[in-house]
Amino acid sequence: MTDGFSVPGPAAAGPLAASVARVTELAGRLGLGHSDVFDVHELSDASGVPPEVVGALLEGRAAGEPDLQARFLQRFDLLRRTRLKPNGRRYTQQEIADGAGMSRQQAGALINGDRRPTMEHCDAIQRFFRVHAGFLTAGDADALNSALQRTEQRLLQNCAGDVDPLERLLQDHGVRGIAWRAAQLPTDKHRDKVTEWLDLLLESVKPVEPRDSPKPTER
User: Which residues contact 19 (CB under 8 A, 6 or more apart)?
Assistant: First the structure.
């Protein structure tokens, strides 16, 4: 168990399942545990989805808030609790109103659920709290999937930093397959062209030898 949910299982079919599988595979390549990439509280903060719903979705169970207004209120409340001022305090209604370009009365009505938000309201609030577009309105599964995709991008960057440049060349350009196919070409002229191209690629990943630092001149 990890923060209330078991090891990610067959998350509901579709994009979320694919993202869970990719993140799991990348985590394994980097030697990370499931708790490092599937922490329900971190994913909740990143997606706006309540932790218990994150856990359920990761386990492949149907979960989430279908009502747009209710989701908006959940996400808005999470933003106010987790995106704090530099002094650690919450933003006031007036500060949110000023930053989002609306009146204090409008901000209060949105926070209390007395007024349904427009897309303009959502965009302004998202910009104020510096979260991505759709944070306040996306369905729970879609919001979690977006958060996992951002996790995937971070893991891919870490993987890229660990891969030898030559190995990355072999992976990205399929050099092994190209070399095999080149051997099937009908003439030496064609094979020489491929060899010349491969040489250029290999040259691009050669480590740069450090130049000898100049010796100080004697006076």
Answer: 145, 148, 149, 152
